[in-house]
Prior knowledge:
The protein is α+β, with helices and mostly antiparallel strands. The protein has five helices and seven strands.
Amino acid sequence: MYWECPYCGQGQTVTSPNFSQIQMPFEIKAPECGEVGLRGIAVRCANPECNQLEIRAEIVRADRTRSGNYYILPGPETLHHSRLLPPSFAKVLPDFIPAVLRDDYEEACKICDLSPKASATLARRCLQGMIRDFCGISKNRLIDEVNALRKLLADDNAPRGVSEESVEAIDAVRDIGNIGAHMEKDISVIIEVDADEARTLIELIELLFEEWYIAREKRRMRLSKVVAIKEAKDSTKLIAKEASNERPNE
């Protein structure tokens, strides 16, 4: 099966030496949820520079065979799942991304399944922090910051990497994150955010980290290499010139 390591992000095809699965039914008579069992899955990263272990646990449907033995039902019968190692699906982020943004992102990942609404609120706060740090826009309300970013984009003054699509997506997260950031006037109105929706917001954060911060750092590194080459060449020329001037006339 194809698998992407949650530690190093490397995609790979998992083979049997790096994959193990155990299944065990709970022999409890007629619970309300029906016959259930536990499935444990362990995958080791084949990247020798990583070599980390992911472990997941699932509560799944179970059934009895005619002989009375249990077996685990295959397919979409998972009732609950939990990641044991690593504790969340957060990607390891480079240190040049501000710590406060990394903290909000990691916390949003950690509670995504447990509390999607809280995760969406953290995602909203993380995106607001990105606008303030990367784009240099700081206002009282996120909607005002988004509108200011729109104006920069329209005037062709937005930071490199900011696109119309990304601004529209941020505005959508602003609206979704308001569910947790501000109570509805009618408190009887409950707008749910499920785990898949919260994960989509987190994926937007990961995309913007890549398009804004990581792309900027890669560009800086490439340009600094060119400057370093020029400085090395200039230094070599200077040394050669000084050596030539010090050489006595023949």
